[in-house]
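[09:14] KT: can someone run the structure on this one? pasting the chain below
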Amino acid sequence: MSTPRRALILIDVQQQYFGGPLEIQYPPHQESLPMIAKAVDAATAAGIPIAVIQHSAGAGAPVFAPGTPGFELHPEIERRKTGAWKALVKQYGSVYAGTDLAAWLRKHDVDTVTLVGYMTNNCVLASAVEAEFLGFTTEVLSDATGAVNLANDAGFADAKTVHTTLLALLNSNWAAVADTETWTHVLGAGQALNRSDLGSSAIAGSELVPQA
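[09:31] RB: done, structure tokens below
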């Protein structure tokens, strides 16, 4: 197996997610933010490209409005940011939609994208799914991402259920999922993360469900 040519993508590690109705609940941001910082430090030490993404809902929007405190990167990310990082602003869930990120990745000969940041249930999911069409292998760090509680006309799911369910979904098809410590180890070793597939996941799932 060839050595992955990685880039680390920081998705929306913005102040909007550290308080108020969009505050990340699981894993709590007090736990996920240090893991994001750890991934950044490991990527920096390994010399792999880093891109930092900020979401904009447009001027005057109630959330993610440029020029407001909620739009700004968290200080733990801002202080690590360098001129070598690719910085861009997006308007959609996927980091690729309406941006030049894919072109930048190809320019740097990247074939494997590692996603950290927020939210698992929105931009991480959308980015991992679109990457399949674009031809990038995706990795998602389970303890460096996070979700919120969700309730609407379709039902309710707490943040832990949302996060863990979506990671199992992603690992069954669209991404290799691992924690930051495991990723840091394979990064240093130049190895790929282990990943599952839909067939294997379905078989394993059927074996865990009691038969009637």
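[09:33] KT: thanks! The chain has seven helices and eight strands.
[09:34] RB: yep, looked fine to me
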